[in-house]
Design brief:
Shape: globular
CATH superfamily: Rieske [2Fe-2S] iron-sulphur domain
Keywords: 2Fe-2S, Iron, Iron-sulfur, Metal-binding
Order of helices and strands: EEEEEEEEE
Number of strands: 9
Distance between the termini: 24 Å
Pfam families: Rieske
Oligomer: single chain
Helix content: under 10%
Number of domains: 1
Protein name: Non-heme iron oxygenase ferredoxin subunit
InterPro entries: Rieske_2Fe-2S, Rieske_2Fe-2S_sf
Largest sheet: 6 strands, antiparallel
Number of helices: 0
Structural class: mainly beta
CATH class: Mainly Beta
Length: 109
């Protein structure tokens, strides 16, 4: 599978997330305050809640329902009640286009 265009960089707002679905995989695309684009699994591992509806601060995203925060870099939960990580996907930028391949995940660090 190859990377799919999910949005343009200009469509993303700093410290916010946007939900996209690529090949049936829900993904939260996040532009952090430093201008870096991240792509993580959009479903909180504690409950069936969209992380894109949560809160972005620095390099974390917090689930609005129960407060679990996840690292945008590793997908690891930073606090309870979640204890399982979410997948992190490689992001490619091609000019203003944001591309993601949901079959390619970054190893948790």
């Amino acid at each position: 599978m190859s990377a799919t265009r999910v949005c343009s960089l200009s469509e993303l707002e700093p410290d916010s997330a946007r939900r996209v679905v690529v090949d049936g995989v829900p993904i939260a695309v996040v532009l952090d305050s430093a201008g870096e684009v991240h792509a993580i699994g959009d479903t909180c591992t504690h409950g069936d809640i969209s992380l894109a509806e949560g809160f972005v601060e620095g390099d974390t995203i917090e689930c609005w329902a129960h407060g679990s925060a996840f690292s945008l870099r590793s997908g690891r939960p930073l606090n309870l009640p979640a204890y399982e990580p979410v997948p992190v996907y490689a992001v490619q930028l091609d000019g203003d286009d944001v591309l993601i391949d949901p079959s390619v995940t970054k190893p948790a660090s």
